[in-house]
Write a structure and sequence with these properties.
By secondary structure, the chain is mostly helical. It has 18 helices and six strands.
Amino acid sequence: MLEEAFGNYKDLLTRVTYHPAMGVYLTYVNNPKSDVAANTFPDENYAREVMQLFTIGLYELAPDGSRIVDADGEYIPTYDNDDISEFSKIFTGLTWADRTQWNRNSPKDTSYTLDLDMRNEYHEPGSKTLLNGFIVPDRNPVDGDADISDALDNLFNHPNVGPFIGSLLIQRLVTSNPSADYIARVSAVFEDNGEGVRGDMKAVVKAILLDPEAIACSSADNPQFGRLQAPFKRYVHMNRAFKVSTLSGNFRNDMDYIYRFTQQKPMNSPSVFNFYQYDHQPLGPVTDQDLVAPEFQIANSETIKGWVNAAYRFIIKENIADEYRLYTGEDNTSYEDEKSILDFSAELLYTDDINLHILVDRLNLLLAAGQLSEVTTDIIKSAIEKFPNITDNDKKNRVKTAIYLVVSSPEYLIIR
């Protein structure tokens, strides 16, 4: 699905729908049509979540992301149980592409690399009434793929998608509390990329990152602007910043330690709502001002301490991968060429006392986008000055300590 990340959102939604991992996670692989006599009906998991999480959200939205209210001042739901039931009929008949028989498990791991296959004999026949009165026709013969295409079109063209998806992307990429005008500008690009195309994700991401609110220096002075950097993103950031590599080009990192330290790693979300919810409000000033801080849902005494310990292990100990569980019982020499290596060569040029300010400035720019305060940079320089600078190992210790202190600082953790 990486190919669709900067393509069209309808195409991305289609790939997600046909991906076996999603089919297993939301239980619609081998989801059969209704059998009233047997009192069995289509699984509703994906039908509900594709609306709530992937397209339109829970309530009708204005283009600026604000919730629309009815004559009584109540929020207007985007869908109800009848809609879920109708959509559930759409996602019937899908099974593993490399299975010849229905209702079997995947035959091998590579099954997950193939799009799910539609078996029309198990797809719910008849018309389905979806959102805004749209009716999927009663096709004869049954054509499940056409039904799915119609249903995804119905969702994709809903006016909620631009503000709903746009605001979520802004939260992940720029700031937890974007202004209504910011959301409206991004939503407008989702509606039309300037060439009459709806859902152009490349244009949407560009609009998010280059919006005046995102690039204005004054935004950094706004205490409501910015976001907490999620732990796994910090881990990836360190790997990228210092050009992680292995001698063989193969990585055998299962990221067990990053999960133990921070409660986050890919494919381990505790629920379909991710590791944290977009509207999470930690108690205190954030809640008092009716703001949100999603990533703080997994920021607690354990994970805050865990990040500092993780950074020590990754940077000071230079153990960016988890080798213990993966290599137990193996001869160490059998995996030396698969151990991760961080490249500090550029930083090692500035370890002399007269150049330490250059080292810290470089790390400030590379890791913290220049946001470290003068107080923080002075503390870091003072700390690393206390290390000797004679041997190559001494020089490396200065560099590693400086990096460790930067990634432990509040200015690094809070992206402004």
